[in-house]
Write a structure and sequence with these properties.
By secondary structure, this protein is of the alpha+beta class. It is built from nine helices and five strands, in the order αααβαββαβααβαα. Strands 2-3-5-1-4 form a five-stranded mixed sheet. Strand 2 and strand 3 form a beta hairpin. Helix 6 runs antiparallel to helix 7.
Length: 325
């Protein structure tokens, strides 16, 4: 009864040993099946991972697509807003974009030309301007005149002109305004083109190897640089004339007789005026008498000589007459 289990155990061991032996056909099939199963599992896992990645990427793309579309829309909107803002910024403003040269000439009669010129200087400096030229000269013993050229900002042009016109009796007033906006724009465009041309010639000089090419390019660069400097000077002149308006002020004093009449009407003659007038008349009479005496002196001298000779000849004739009788 006890030998049977041992026999069964030995049989099971023999069967298991036969199964594990590689040389048997069953063991080979088992190994092949295992290998095929492992390969299938690896391929399945790889496919699932790739599919998961692809699906994840696709999901990410699908999720990012609305955001991208929204970003594109917002970018387009921002671009439109930027374009609209730049268009609004580039929209010409007639009052700001206009370049105008303003000039005026004033002729004013004042009591004192030097004092009026000093007041005009103060007015120009208070407005933020300057005196470009000033000349005061004495016309005669009683009158002076002044010539003043003022440069004032365009915004203060009208107020300064009104203030200068009210300094005395206005004799003449002229004003002109010349729009040079097209000229300013043209000069700016030509300057930009000329700068580009100068830069191009400089690049060619850096690349030139032959001496003849270098000499030729240097001459061309000198010509273009001179043209550029001329344009820059023209631009500076236009900027100066359009930034500051020019006012030419001519100041003169009234004639002496008009001034004397005005003084007489206001104050009337006094004792000192009469004394001064009498003394002036006395001195004038003395001067005229002295001048008349000086003019008649040669004739008087000749007449005196003739009288003396006549008297002597008469005396001799009188003496000769009695002796002959």
């Amino acid at each position: 009864m006890q030998a049977a289990p041992a026999t069964r155990t030995n049989r099971h061991t023999d069967r298991q040993g036969r199964r594990d032996r590689p040389g048997r056909p069953g063991a080979r099939r088992t190994q092949t099946a295992l290998a095929a199963g492992l390969l299938t599992a690896v391929l399945a896992l790889s496919g699932c991972g790739a599919g998961g990645d692809d699906s994840g990427k696709s999901a990410d793309r699908r999720a990012a697509a609305p955001a991208q579309q929204e970003g594109v829309g917002s970018g387009a909107g921002g671009a439109e807003k930027g374009a609209g803002g730049s268009a609004a910024a580039k929209k010409p403003n007639p009052s700001a974009a206009a370049h105008v040269i303003r000039t005026a000439t004033l002729s004013v009669e004042v009591k004192s030309a030097p004092e009026a010129a000093a007041a005009a200087r103060v007015t120009a400096e208070a407005a933020g301007g300057l005196i470009a030229d000033e000349k005061t000269e004495q016309v005669d013993a009683h009158r002076a005149s002044s010539h003043v050229v003022l440069r004032v900002p365009q915004g203060e042009y009208d107020s300064v002109l009104r203030e200068l016109s009210g300094t005395g009796k206005l004799l003449l007033r002229t004003s002109t305004a010349k729009d040079v906006t097209d000229q300013v724009v043209d000069v700016e465009s030509r300057i930009a083109s000329q700068r580009t041309s100068v830069a191009r010639v400089r690049k060619l000089m850096d690349r030139a190897d032959e001496l003849s090419d270098v000499v030729s390019l240097e001459g061309e660069l000198s010509n273009r640089q001179a043209a550029l400097e001329s344009m820059l000077a023209e631009q500076a002149s236009l900027k100066d004339r359009t930034t500051l308006a020019t006012i030419t002020l001519n100041l003169s004093e009234p004639k002496p007789h008009a001034k004397a009449v005005a003084d007489d009407d206001e104050d009337g003659p006094g004792f000192l005026d009469a004394l001064s007038g009498g003394w002036h008349v006395f001195v004038t009479v003395i001067k005229w008498l002295a001048m008349a005496l000086g003019a008649a002196a040669p004739f008087l001298a000749v007449a005196a000589v003739v009288v003396v000779l006549w008297q002597r000849l008469g005396r001799r004739g009188g003496k000769a007459g009695p002796e002959g009788e």
